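Q: Got a minute? One more chain.
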Amino acid sequence: MSVFASLVVGADGSTSKNGSSSGISSGADRTTFLARRRNADFILIGGQTARTEPYHRTPVPVVVTSRSMINALADNRLAHWWNLPPVSALEKGVKKFGPNVLVETGPQLINELIQARVLDGIYLSITSVTGGDDVIDIEALLSNFTSVHRDEIQGTLFIEAKTLK
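A: Always. Here it is, folded:
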């Protein structure tokens, strides 16, 4: 099983701007992000992500873990809205779709998966944008992993962190 999270943040640690991650994304981040999703068996997101980000079309199934059963993705035939805790939704998704999982959600759900020790790593894109919302401590997030590789492409810093401590 391979479970990796994908998260874009601004230089100040902001994870959204004007209510969406698109406000802090870059062209290089978007290209890398879209390529990563095509290799996943399914995408796992939270309900808030489903309501604020464009998941109406996805190349692979998308599993939404949410306590609210108001399905914001009813028009996506590959969307599955499950009223399950994140770890249970992850396990059910692996059984139904396969072991290669891309978690595209906010820091709260990512931290929950880290605490449950089910995340193999994270792909973090850090753009030059500042002044966004929902700020996280990037170094604190990365301190959960033992292997951290950094690479800069077109002004965006890409970090691949693996293996939970």
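A: Residues 107 and 116 are 14 Å apart (CA to CA).
Q: Perfect, thanks.
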